[in-house]
Specification:
The complex is a heterodimer of chains A (about 350) and B (about 500). By secondary structure, chain A is mainly alpha-helical. Helices cover about 75% and strands about 0% of the residues of chain A. Chain A is globular, with a radius of gyration of 22 Å. Chain B is about 30% helix and about 25% strand. In chain B, the strands form four sheets. Chain B has a six-stranded mixed sheet, sandwiched between helices. In chain B, strands 16-17-18-13-19-20 form a six-stranded mixed sheet, sandwiched between helices. In chain B, strands 2-1-4-5 form a four-stranded antiparallel sheet, covered by helices on one side. The chains are: A mainly alpha (about 350), B alpha/beta (about 500). The interface of A and B includes residues 217, 238 and 351 of A.
Chain lengths: ~350, ~500
Amino acid sequence: MKMRFRVISLSAPIIALTISFGLSSLILLVIGKDPYETFRIMFEYGSTGKSIVSIINRSIPLYISAIAVAVGFKMGLFNIGVEGQYLMGTLVAAYIGAQFSIVTPIHILFIIIVAVVVSSMWAAIAGYLKVEKGIHEVISTIMLNYIGTGLIAYSLTTLFDEPNSNYDLPRTAELPETGKMPSLNKFFNIEDLQDLHGFLAVAILVGILYYWLVWKTTLGFDLRITGSNPIAAKFSGINPKRLVVIAMIVSGAFAGLVGLAPLLGYFHRYTIDFPTGLGFAGIGVALLGRNHPFGMAVGALLFAFLQRSAQILDLNDVPKEIEKMMQAFILLIVVVFYEVIRRFIVKQQIKDASKRTDE
Amino acid sequence: MNLAIEIENITKTYPGVLANSDVSISVNSGSIHAIVGENGAGKSTLMKILYGMIKPDSGSIQIFESNANMSSPKDAINLGIGMVHQHFMLAKNLTVLENIILGIDKPLLKNIKLSKYKSEIKKVMDLYSLNINLNQYIDELSVGEKQRVEIIKVLYRGAKILILDEPTAVLVPQEVKELFKNLKELKDKGVTILFISHKLDEVLEIADEISVMRSGQMIDTVMNNNVSKIQLAEMMIGKSLPTPPPRITSSEDEEVLSINNLSSIDEDGRTVFKNITFKVHKSEILGIAGVEGNGQKEVVESIIGIHPLDTGEVVFRGEDIKKQSTRERLESGISFIPEDRQLQAMIMDMNLTNNVIIGRQNIEKYKSSLGTVKTRNAAKESEKIISSFEVKTPSTNTLATALSGGNQQKFVVGRELEDNPSLLIASQPTRGIDIGAQSLIWEKLRNSRDEGLSVLLISADLEELIGLSDRIIVFYQGKLVKELDADKVSPEDLGGYMTGLKK
């Protein structure tokens, strides 16, 4: 019975994917490009060994970011501030992490803890403002993003700038060797390709932790019932204010991990061109994956695949913005079909329940 | 006599549900025709079909002896049908006059000729002897007056057939009397009235003819003067009415809950309730009567810590619990059945097993030492509730929203009676559910009371209140105005105290 509904639920993203490929094809036709040829090139390029490593690397921060957003979504809280939270956390962690050297596991763990603490404190501000001052979290987190960006720009050029650097742009000092996360290439016996980020292991653990937290613990139960019916949640004895602050802190803690895959695995320092926008991209992935740990993993891989494979398009004279449009199509359509399918399932259940009543 | 409405062989099915099966009914012009039936018997489906809100699968409708083919309420209004919904459709920050003309004019930027409308509405009011001050704001009106505005609204739009959906559900006895007087006046002026209800006494008082529906079928239509209440009830539920067993034990002296001098003032400085003092003994049902909005809801919500208090004590089993959180109170043996099961008691998009846990997330039965939810215990408990409260559901995995109102409520009551609480606060425990579920809940409440449970019962259904309670206290304008012995009070007396007419 439950199995049947699960299969039906899966049809929504598949339908969305099909339709958005169709719409993108239409647009390609309008601008005079061959859609079949375009997609063929994309898949061919996207399935090379190099691309696959790149796709996995790209999907790690996307996935963690989606989880940070999903924790809030589960209780009806919109943390739009994952962006500012992860950038703040990463900057501070990169700076402090470069100040000393100890054995690798402890060094990395320390960097992780710093990032998590900074990001969750930054997120807690929004929680506090909502609970004590009644400021909606969407407004406050967006504002905190701006403030965070300003703070980062200022402190990167002054406080955190690498001393005696002969590099033109501001950046933190490089992490010592002990603070760099080893790649997984040896583990998977990958040769001749770029590094597969070691943070992949952390991402998988984060997915499991998220699942356990939201679906197995009492805290997660409280989050979910507050998300679907805040009034009933209050009558059940939940203190909504306390829960809002907890949820923001947990969401911010996950956000703290977003920037660590690129930091520990590739950049090894915070620079002016450190990847931004991962916090916003995570919102899309969370929507696509319906806040489910497995669904978001698929969503993150899909978006990473589109981003990577679109890089070949410019060489073939197709505007690579088609990839951004496809992502947007997928999101728009999938939201509609999730709702359609949800209603269908509820109807089916009502039907089953009334059958039982007739007996 | 002319027929105002003739419905022939109407059938309407929803996926898996036969809402109306081959329903036929004839309503004489200028009569009051009641339709009675349990919740889910198909009354509202039939009325929605008649009002053009849904289309039947088959069958025909004739209005004033000509074929009616309606596809929206607009068509119904044009044919002279008006509907007064159970929940009023009024804008409370507008005046009566503005509410009545709302939506009549096309929305254009032009001056509304209020005086023209005013004189037209006055004519309608005079014709049907319906009285109301057109310049008052809806906010300032009583429930009965709001209902009158709704009636004037549909009459002004030219209705000759009036559908009233459970019109007395929200009224006190005095207002019901007023409504019935108005309805008789309307009937004398030739208006046809369809009166939907499940309160048999009222139906017998007002209706000329009575049609009974049961599980989507029209059982029979009878003349009022040759049917008894018991016959009607038996037609409605298809079996003889259960009679309440007399109580076997008496309440004990031990005070389970003692409320001392409770007061609450809201942010605007308005008194919500003031100096409330009462006690609930072990093995006793204390009923609270009051028209909605007189502070009784806030008092019980303050007992579980949801509504804020200014002064006073809430003593539960000898301990002042005023400083405790809602969660601590719920876990210390107070159970709460809120008045709105879908909004306050259940999570509609979760399954029954998850719904068992709500309100008890932190007790040992449902929370492991690791902080995880013990789903298996919850599944066992929901199985138990489903069988002992006769909840009709395919399984414990069914979403709460898939259940009918009566089954949802039985499940909530079962959940709240689990683990033998010392005190149960039941707010409108049988509102809007069928007779079968209602009598089961009554029986369970009585049994629990006999086994030592203390119950604080709020109900708008005065017969329920009198029938179940041992004592009744009455709230009026935020004060406790009267304490009564439930054995010696009539609904009329109670209504008098509730509206401040009696002191």
